[in-house]
Amino acid sequence: MATSSFRAPDEAVIAHACRVAEVAPDLPIVLSIIPQNAGNTLSSAVVATIAARCSNVVGLKDRTEISMPASLYNGIRRPLTGAV
User: Fold this and answer.
1) Where are the domains of the chain?
2) pLDDT per position in the chain (84 positions), as tens?
3) Residue 51: left (phi > 0), alpha (psi -120 to 50), or beta?
4) Residue 74: left if φ>0, alpha if ψ -120 to 50, beta else—which one?
5) 58 — phi, psi (to 5°)?
6) Entry pTM
């Protein structure tokens, strides 16, 4: 799930991600941070909140230059890098 190309408050991004996870409970969800293509980014707090609320969020594709500490991933898999 990529962040939107439109600016949105963190709570709206969290609500959107959780809704996607909710309607597809049997599918693994991978969050995607691609700042050059998005109006939003996913902060470590947003990633941690989504992961805590959505059990089927299993990964994070992080294309930023800065990596978040592993402790903030809150149980989701290590970030993916490169083209997936």
Assistant:
1) 10-73
2) 555 567 789 999 899 999 999 999 999 998 888 777 777 778 889 999 999 999 999 888 877 765 555 555 555 555 554 544
3) alpha
4) left
5) -115, -10
6) 0.69
